[in-house]
Amino acid sequence: MAAARARLGPDELGVLEQYRGGGPYRPEPDALATAVRWKVLVDRFDSERRLPLSTYALRGVSDLSDALALRDAAEVAVVRLPEDVAVKFRAYLDAGDSAYQEWTVADSRAPLAADAEECARLAANSVSRAWWWFRRPTDGPIAKPFL
Questions:
Q1: Residue 78 predicted with pLDDT over 70
Q2: List of long-range contacts for 111-115, beta carbons under 8 Å, 24+ apart
């Protein structure tokens, strides 16, 4: 996080502080915090899905739902930023999104639809119906509940 903040100028840091996320988190994280955290969680799921179940720390659907709720908050936070600043933060989200897409597949059954609806209700936004909720892991212990 510190490295990401170090790449920003004082004006961008000021704008970042003015526009906080819109998720169910309190206090609301800023755009950079949510975008960086999204990538960290995606990478953690990716590395842990290769581990045996006995050593797997992120155990289930609720952990994935929590990560996707954070992705919602990141989207809301970035969308609220002025366009010239949002472009920089979008790169962090894109990195997490690309990694997430590598170990998930689209699933029209929408196995997390109920969680997405609950997040939409709590956050009072429609972001929770976004594409990331309609994917499922392809392998590893995290995939088992979706099979």
A1: yes
A2: 111/61, 111/136, 111/145, 111/146, 112/61, 112/64, 112/65, 112/68, 112/136, 115/61, 115/65, 115/68, 115/69
The total of structural domains in the chain comes to: 1
Any bridge partners for residue 24, and if so which? Answer: none
**Residue 117 structural domain:** 2-146
138 three-state secondary structure: coil
Do residues 117 and 128 touch, judged by C-beta distance below 8 A? yes
**Amino acid 79: pLDDT:** 80
CA distance 89 to 96: 11
